């Protein structure tokens, strides 16, 4: 008997409905084979772009149902989910534009040069091909933007790769609903529905990453789960690229001058970033270096007020709630750690936000406080009070890789009139994939220049899961040597029949869409 | 006592001189730390480009000594090594040009758009940074172009990464000589010598890939050695990118029409590709699908003559010679395998070239002949005689990933007048990173559009180790959000003070070097 998959209401802990069953190994195999068989249908860029736009349209149409299902399963609230759906369909349309524009094919053409010294050069033409079936492991905390219709799926389909999504158990009904919309969009675009499929179940996820016809994987989730799947991907007879976004502390440094200039504003801004979405953002600031002394006190006072005023919230599931409560308790028990606003359980299902403080010196030396350098999922942050620049450096030197690093500096430091923020920026840049000045990392804009990734454990590769370049993860280059024009793919022919942007003999040629 | 490292003459099997000692773990650690400490010196692109050009100049100057040392250790001959040195210095200068031109930084700038729907966009600017210390594992078969001063080293330095090379034990003296030239070039360019270092010893190589300050690795060598290091890289607490080029069968398909049109020429061309460099090329054609019947017979007749006429040669070391002899013996023992020209030992140190034949049907079904689908390093190839298109497809369907795949077709098939070579090209493209028509894969041109990589086990990643895009392996993107102009790296400032090519708000801006 296949195990049932239940949709659960985190606000009550009660089962809502039986949504599906966990996929058996045979079902995973059938699903992957069907996806693989459908891959040629995605070869045409025009069809792919149309499919992505239709998917966006149909998701918008189904918006009310999607948001209702997602809210019932995640407790994230209709407001946030409405924004997330808009972001998700915007992302699908962005990738349609990227497919149309064609730069992602990275076309390079070098004509033969028989006179080249020291060695004559043959005719070489290179572009990029889709890798094949992509396994997508969806996140719990964004049931749309980082789940079935999210960035991994959108970028893989844009690249021409069929997708098999492993549903997150925290929102199986939303996953089923979104998968059915995507499959309907495929059919409406003249594609086989199997270009997108969904499987449920932990074991199904493990089977998936090991399947010989799976060519790459994208993952958003915990360090433990992501690392286990990464290891499985690397241990295959034929290893595959595993693009995982695992965990991130997202350090923030508040300079003394910034705290003096606008300590209250920084405190309240920080409270907003920590409590947004009940602290369940992969870019939630988890460690804040703030000055000891009066200026830092003002940051903390404002933070205390704003966090105390924040409403309680319901986490995505009860396991996360237990982990959050235990994680806070463990951290609070460390020597020197105080909790001006203690986060924790609130009633039977909710949690309240809070924050901890610790002298930065405790983090700088030894291993006693290492736990504070690990992500704690939920509405809590740790403020480390520093006495000197050296303490800032010492703590930054101990932080593992991050998605983001943020500095809050004064106006004088920003324009160079006062001290050098250059050095501070140079110090945080090696730690992260995105560096912010005087902002908050929550909110990951979908834009060509976005980079949502960072040194391990932020990601398991050097790539991004948000933004235009996310498509690069699902492609591999191939070069054709001395191939007759008639046999070349149209992308690589001299007359450029598809009007694509290319680099020919070192010179850029704009595409017709440019 | 540290183990001595001997230079050995493969023509006699005798030790030439003691060159160095194997690096202890403490020495590997010191070397990596020194490389890491030197990384900031490579930040300036102008200095990097000058360094690469100086390295090329000094290698050219030292040419006579380098070639003499390499010939004494590898028996590849001064002719071949002179060409390889020219290719190596050309490659260093090419990467200097790439560094100057700046496209590799992949600069994307999106200005803030507060009116963007559904979500306002912050200012985002992205470019690429060097990863850090790169470990390079050099190949045996190209003591220059894929060794100390080769493509991995050149591309890593171009990216701004210090390099620690693990010397190949088949040419330690050449490695020492080249490393000293590169270190001299660094000093002459105002850089610390430690931007390039060399370590010897198997254990040192294992230590190297595990070192916490090593940020990425490049490898060219065997499937067994490469996979072991890949596994070690993946098993680290912080996994690192491992770009390994491991093994490749490099299949060739000769159509019936091509064999009819120019069977003799194909046979002699094949003999050249199989015997070049005593068959020690990673792109040596190891499996040739040729038609059964009279047209195929003509290919074989010509191949037989040309291979019989080829001179005997000395392999890179005696272990390879033993493996070659054993590999040929094992393959020849398989049912249905014949050896029209039996390759094997020739005297005490040399080997002679040859080839085997087998009915393609034997390869198409079952696992009895799987060994013929594995690379056999040395001057031998396997010709599989096919009776039908279906047999071609069946054999191609069983071949693992390759660096190259080649088709030989007739003039009519090339221009579409006769049958469809389209399908054949579509069938071999998924197998390889480079597809050739009517040529031979030996000779890997250094060119922007080159791709020297392919599905596993050809490479462990989707990247290339030859050509301009090889630099991409050693970089990671970082995005700056809402960062004041004065604090941005000059590469990302609005006024583009370095004149770099960029993509700003979706529009390409050419650089001043373009």
From TrEMBL, chains A, B:
Keyword terms of this UniProt record: Oxidoreductase
Chain residue ranges for the region called Disordered: 1-24, 485-514
Domain of life: Bacteria
Domain Aldehyde dehydrogenase: 7-446
InterPro entries named in the record: Ald_DH/histidinol_DH, Ald_DH_C, Ald_DH_N, Aldehyde_DH_dom, Aldehyde_DH_Superfamily, ALDH_KGSADH
Residue ranges, compositional bias (Basic and acidic residues): 491-514
Pfam families reported in the protein's UniProt record: Aldedh
Entries under PANTHER family matching the protein: ALDEHYDE DEHYDROGENASE-RELATED (PTHR43353:SF3), SUCCINATE-SEMIALDEHYDE DEHYDROGENASE, MITOCHONDRIAL (PTHR43353)
Protein name from the UniProt record: Aldehyde dehydrogenase (NADP(+))
Phylogenetic lineage: Bacteria, Bacillati, Actinomycetota, Actinomycetes, Kitasatosporales
């Amino acid at each position: 008997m296949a195990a049932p998959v239940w949709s659960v209401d985190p606000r009550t802990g009660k089962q809502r409905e039986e949504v599906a069953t966990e996929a058996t190994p045979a079902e995973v195999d059938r699903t992957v084979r069907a996806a693989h068989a459908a891959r040629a249908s995605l070869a045409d860029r025009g069809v792919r772009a149309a499919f992505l736009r239709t998917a966006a349209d149909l998701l918008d149409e189904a918006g009310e149902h999607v948001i209702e299902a997602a809210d019932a399963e995640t407790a994230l609230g209709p407001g946030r989910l409405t924004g997330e759906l808009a972001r998700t369909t915007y992302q699908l349309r962005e990738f349609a534009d990227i497919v149309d524009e064609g730069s992602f094919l990275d076309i390079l053409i070098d004509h033969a040069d028989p006179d080249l010294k020291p060695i004559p050069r043959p005719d070489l033409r290179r572009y990029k091909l889709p890798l094949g079936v992509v396994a997508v492991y969806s996140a719990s905390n964004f049931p749309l933007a980082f789940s079935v219709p999210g960035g991994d799926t959108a970028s893989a389909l844009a690249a021409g790769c069929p997708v098999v999504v492993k549903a997150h158990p925290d929102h199986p009904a939303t996953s089923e609903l979104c998968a059915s919309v995507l499959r309907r969009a495929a059919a409406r675009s003249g594609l086989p529905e199997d270009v997108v499929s969904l499987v449920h179940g932990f074991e199904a996820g493990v089977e998936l990453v090991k399947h010989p016809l799976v060519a790459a994987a994208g993952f958003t989730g915990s360090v433990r789960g992501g690392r286990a799947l990464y290891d499985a991907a690397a241990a295959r007879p034929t290893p595959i690229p595993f693009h995982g976004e695992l965990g991130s502390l997202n350090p923030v440094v508040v300079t003394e001058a910034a705290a003096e200039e606008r300590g209250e504003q920084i405190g309240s801004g920080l409270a907003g970033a920590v409590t947004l979405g009940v602290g369940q953002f992969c870019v939630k600031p988890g460690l804040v270096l703030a000055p000891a002394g009066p200026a830092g006190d003002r940051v903390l006072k404002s933070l205390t007020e704003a966090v105390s005023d924040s409403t309680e919230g319901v986490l995505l599931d009860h396991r996360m709630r237990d982990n959050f409560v235990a994680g806070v308790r463990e951290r609070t028990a460390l020597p020197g750690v105080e909790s001006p606003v203690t986060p924790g359980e609130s009633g039977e299902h909710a949690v309240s936000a809070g924050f901890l403080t610790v002298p930065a010196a405790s983090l700088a030396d030894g291993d006693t406080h290492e736990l504070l350098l690990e992500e704690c999922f939920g509405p809590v942050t740790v403020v480390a009070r520093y006495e000197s620049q050296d303490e800032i450096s010492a703590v930054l030197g101990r932080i593992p890789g991050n998605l983001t690093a943020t500095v809050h500096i004064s106006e004088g430091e920003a324009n160079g009139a006062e001290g050098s923020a250059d050095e501070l920026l140079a110090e945080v840049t090696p730690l992260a994939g995105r560096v912010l000045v005087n902002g908050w990392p929550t909110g990951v804009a979908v834009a060509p220049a976005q980079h949502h990734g960072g040194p391990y454990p932020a990601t398991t590769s050097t790539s991004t899961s948000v933004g235009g370049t996310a498509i690069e993860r699902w492609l591999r280059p191939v070069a054709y040597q001395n191939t007759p024009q008639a046999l070349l793919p149209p992308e690589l022919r001299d007359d450029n029949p598809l009007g694509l942007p290319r680099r020919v003999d070192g010179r850029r040629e704009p595409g017709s869409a440019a």
